[in-house]
Amino acid sequence: MERHSLEWIDGAKSREEFEQRYDEWAGSYDRDLVWDWDYKLPAFIGDLFMKYVKNRDARILDAGAGTGLGGEYISQNGYNNLFGIDMSKGMLDEARGKKIYHSLDQMVLGETLDFSDNYFDAILSVGTMGHAPPESFDDLIRITKPSGFIVFSIRTAFYDEPRFYGKLQSLEEEGKWRLVEKTDPILALPGESPDTYHYGFVYEVL
Fold first, then answer.
1. Is residue 1 part of a domain?
2. How many domains does the chain have?
3. Which H or E run contains 202?
4. Quick check: is 198 in a domain?
5. 155 neighbors 196 (Cβ within 8 angstroms)
6. Which phi and psi angles does 50 have, rounded to 5°?
7. Rounded Cα distance, 19 and 3, in Å
8. Kindly report the CA angle at 148 between 138 and 142, in degrees rounded to 5?
9. What distance in Å separates the CA atoms of residue 143 and residue 122, rounded to the nearest whole number?
10. Is the pLDDT of residue 73 over 90?
11. Which are the contacts of 46, defined by CB distance < 8 A and separation ≥ 6?
12. Could you tell me the pLDDT band of residue 1, with boundaries at 50, 70 and 90?
């Protein structure tokens, strides 16, 4: 079996292969990222989220929840009205074991999500955007209440692709959301990929 790594995930050639690889990795994912690679994003994006979303009772979607590392971080800080989605059943099974979510459902970012309009007060997404396509933001905006925040990370290399930064800008130009904060780059996985950086973003839905 090939070693689980960022490069291994990036090598997936289709959505189905991404799903299969994350299913395979699920059982050791937390150990690899947290203990071996010193994963910084859950706390970094979690703190950024809590800077703007003050209501601990807010209905929050963890979009691309994985094993629940991002949700777990804000849950430890009193946010307990959490819902999660991910494409990988294996990852969702691991997240379910943390017992912090009201529901966890297998959904694919970039497709129409099975939530009604204006359903969530805020959205958190840690380490997902980039592998999830830029079209994901259309439906995330749809399911977020006006004045709600969408807080996410994106790898700097993904953001630099015209399809990503162009999408973020076009949604702002269309009056769908406004940029509240873009962070300086952070080294996300110092123990695995010392040259891979992420931005944090906060948008307010209009």
1. no
2. 1
3. strand 197-205
4. yes
5. yes
6. -70, -20
7. 17
8. 25
9. 9
10. yes
11. 70, 73, 74, 77, 124, 126
12. very low
Amino acid at 178: R
DSSP string, 109-120: BTB--SS-TT-E
Euclidean distance between the first and the last CA atom of the chain, given in angstroms as a whole number: 47
Residue 33 pLDDT exceeds 90: no
- Model pLDDT for residues 3-31, shown as the tens digit of each residue: 566 666 666 677 677 677 767 876 677 67
Overall size of the chain counted in residues: 206
Q: Summarize the confidence of residues 165-181 as an average pLDDT.
A: 98
Domain residues for 55?
6-205
Q: Is 194 helix (H, G, I), strand (E, B) or coil?
A: coil
Nearest to 21 by CA among 31, 11, 30: 11
- Taking the C-alpha atoms of residue 123 and residue 37, their distance in angstroms, rounded to an integer, is 26
Report residue 133: phi and psi, to 5°: -75, 160
Is residue 52 in some structural domain?
Answer: yes
List alpha helices for the chain, DSSP H. Answer: 6-10, 15-30, 41-52, 69-75, 89-96, 136-142, 156-159, 162-173
What CATH number did the domain enclosing 146 receive?
3.40.50.150
Average pLDDT, the chain: 91
Q: Is 130 within a domain?
A: yes
Provide the token pair at 49.
């989220």
Question: From CA 86, how far away is CA 188, in angstroms rounded?
Answer: 20
